[in-house]
Every structure is written in C-alpha cells, then in structure tokens.
Automatic annotation (TrEMBL):
CDD domains: cupin_KduI_C, cupin_KduI_N. This is 4-deoxy-L-threo-5-hexosulose-uronate ketol-isomerase. The gene is kduI. Pathway: Glycan metabolism; pectin degradation; 2-dehydro-3-deoxy-D-gluconate from pectin: step 4/5. The keyword Transport does not apply. Its EC number is 5.3.1.17. It comes from Populibacterium corticicola. One of its GO terms (molecular function) is 4-deoxy-L-threo-5-hexosulose-uronate ketol-isomerase activity. Belongs to the KduI family. It catalyses: 5-dehydro-4-deoxy-D-glucuronate = 3-deoxy-D-glycero-2,5-hexodiulosonate.
Length: 280
C-alpha cells in the first residue's frame, strides 16, 4: 500500500446556501492536482470517483494500491482514464508502453496490475491527469491521440462559446464501464465553456481546467439553477460537480478543460439544460 488518498464526502443541494466561499473551495475545488515527483489523488464519495495527477519529473512513478479503495493494486476493481496535459510522456501497463503526447488519452481497464508513469526521452514535463471509477468488468486498454476521437464543433463566436470538443472515452468510442471523458478547447476570443449550463442527475462530472494563462482565471458556476454559486479556478485545478449541480463557466481568456463523468448513463447528450434566463 502507498500513501492515503484525501477524501471529499458527498454533499446535497441544501448545504449550498449555508457555505462560505472558503467552504465551497474546500469541498469542490482541488487546487494542487500536479506536484512534481508525486502522484496526488483525491477520493470523492460522489460516484466513488478518484481523480488526480502524476508528474514524473524525471523519475518513474508507480500507481499502487491505497487503503481507501481496499485493493491490492489500484485497478483491481477500477478503471482509469488518463490524459496528458504536459510534454510527451509514457505510461506502462503490465509491460505495455504507451506514448502520450499532449492531449492524448489512454484508457486502462479493470485487472491491470502494474501501472507506471515516466517522461519520454528528452522530456521532463509530462503531466498525467487521472480519472478513475469502479468497474464491474474489464475492457481493453486503448490509446487515442488528439483529433482521433469523435470531434464536435459547438457554440458560436457571436456568443463567445465557440469550442472544439474531443470525445475519447464514450459509448461510441473507447469502451468503459462508467467513464465518459474528453477534452474541450475554446477558440481564441471565446470564454464560455458550457452554455447553456446543464445538469445530469445520473452521473457526477469533474472538470480539470488547463492552458489557462497565468494572469487569467475561470469563473466556474455550480449549484442548483435557483441557487447558483461560483468558484474562481486557476490553471490545472479541478472542480468536482455533483450530479445535482449545474456546471458552466467563463474565463478571462481562452483555455481548455478535461471533462470526465461517471455514473449510470454514458449517453453524452443525456442532460437537462439550465438556460441562462432561468438561473438565479
């Protein structure tokens, strides 16, 4: 076993009006996702998701078992989606090496015992984002590079939300038990990442914001449509969005984000819209 995984317990909508801004951040925001030379994970009881980052920083990092998931090895009862948001790196799974350029996605299924992360030769800047959920069966490992998944062009420049959405792990792409995962990149001049906002009571979604300029921030909207709140998010920080919470956001500059979900339904369009005219 390795170090412990900090836990975030499940919450309900009635708690939101009573939370201070600091309590919101402590409950839903993960500020330190990527720490050089470490694998840093967080366990949320919303759909029992584990998310975090692995930064080899010139060494090899092994993904081991943790007391909180009661497994001898990490993927004994789980699956994981991995997206590299840094320089090129390599993930080795039971002896099979996969090279991930920036934006590439690797799926590893239940039952893979040995998982390790390292930088590619000549690179010391890989940053792997991990999103894991319980799995009831095993699906094959699969790698997809940027632009090779299902690409959807959404939004309009007129409404400042023109964006390219790469679907990687989904019902018509890489197969998984629960995970749905991809990357959205906003076009220059666009700042809204999801509009209209929406909820989906059948699954939890987490966002990792990246390529946010150093002097920029994203205002992430959450809560119920009649009781919205916001969290100010910086580069390479993650937000946990419970199934009952809407999720949308606007930045002070264009950026990218990884969206990842787990729950009982994998249909991407299974969502309940929350038009801006209904938000309070």
């Amino acid at each position: 076993m390795s170090h412990h995984i900090p836990q975030r317990y499940a919450t309900n909508p009635d708690q939101i009006p009573l939370m201070t801004q600091e309590e919101l951040r402590e409950t839903y925001l993960i500020e330190d996702v990527f720490v050089p030379g470490e694998i840093v994970l967080t366990y949320t009881h919303h759909d029992r998701i584990v998310l975090g980052g692995a930064v080899p920083a010139g060494a090899e990092l092994a993904l081991t078992g943790y007391p909180e998931i009661r497994s001898d090895y990490f993927l004994e009862h789980r699956e994981v989606g991995i997206i590299n948001v840094g320089d090129t790196g390599t993930v080795t799974a039971d002896g099979e090496a996969y090279e991930l350029i920036k934006g590439a996605c690797l799926y590893l299924g239940r039952g893979i015992k040995d998982v390790a992360f390292r930088d590619a030769e000549g690179s010391q800047g890989a940053q792997f984002y991990l999103f894991s959920a319980p799995a009831h069966t095993s699906y094959p490992a699969a790698l997809v590079r940027p632009g090779e998944g299902t690409v959807r062009e959404l939004g309009d420049q007129v409404t400042s939300n023109r964006r390219s959405l790469n679907q990687y792990i989904h019902e018509n792409g890489i197969k998984s038990c629960q995970i749905v995962m991809g990357v959205t990149t906003l076009h220059e001049g666009s700042m809204w990442n999801t509009m209209p906002a929406h909820t989906h009571d059948r699954r939890t979604e987490c966002y990792l914001y990246f390529d946010v300029p150093q002097d920029a921030r994203v205002i992430h909207l959450m809560g119920e449509r009649e009781e919205t709140r916001h969290i100010i998010v910086g580069d390479r920080q993650a937000v946990i969005s419970p199934s009952w919470s809407l999720h949308s956001g606007v930045g002070t500059a264009a950026y990218s984000f990884i969206w990842a979900m787990a729950g009982e339904n994998q249909a991407f369009d299974d969502m309940d819209a929350a038009p801006i005219t209904e938000l309070r």
